[in-house]
Amino acid sequence: MRRRVSLVLLAFAVFFTALSPLLRWYAFPRLVKIPPSQYQEMVLEAKPATLLDYGTLQAKQVAKVTIVQTLKGNVEESEKIERSAGRDVVVWDSLSYVEGPDGKMVSQIPERYIFDAHSQAPVHATGEMVDGDAVRREGIEFKWPFLTEKRDYEYFDAQTRTSAPIHYRGTRTFRGLEVYYFEQTIPWTKVPYPKKMPIPGVDATTLEKQTGTTRWYTTKRMFWVDPVTGGPVNGEEIHQEELRGGTLLGGRDKVTAFAGHVKMRPDYVDHTVDLITSNRRMVLLMTSYLPWGFVVLGTGLLALALFLEARSRRPRTPAADRDPEPVPA
Question: For helices 2-22 and 290-312, what crossing angle results, to 10°?
């Protein structure tokens, strides 16, 4: 009987030990993914900031500039691309909407970002764009991969339409979470005008051609990233834009269009930290808790099976050596 039990325990030990790497290396990439219907809104502020008044073309100090960034999953487009790509794909329709202290629009830039649902690697398909211009992304944008590594990544910059390294700068603690800190600096670069800008009587799409005035941009981008989910728990930019030369500036060499230290609004930081903390549990369950738990369980069952097998093989006491049974009177 003991031998039968030990064989059953041995079978379970092999099963759980084999299940551990399958869960980590086979199930995890197939089950842990960004949902195609995800919707996210983020509000960032620069307080104070320098902003160009496009009516007078004079830069002035303002109390606040607000940037509302939305990411909306496009399920219909993702299903269409999945049929040809042969893998799970997420399509995010993004909008960065900038408004001044009076609540009026300063600019807005739509994007379509197409990427692999698990690895976050870009998927190149028709419709990939920034502000209506077709682009071919390299690297990541908005989110890091699950199980982020301590290394540099290529990060796509929507203003320049190019990718550049974003550098790992060490491990830090943010709101009780251990996070990886990344930095990227984009040097002064000539960039296109947003197609929607509040310039009276001027078509922004042909502004440079009509006036010769060019738009330039530089930024220092900072992210605090949860290494388990790959989600940024905080983001900041030291952002500057200038208009240079041409007839639009009335003889001036350049004028500041926007300058400020852009930070996530505190209530959105709180919401993001709570969201990522809850998502961490699922990722850790698939990559750490269950795989290691199955290894420990399998090892324990194996030890118990060997113990019972050893007990079953012990020699029994011969009948001649046993004490005689008492005879009833």
Answer: 160
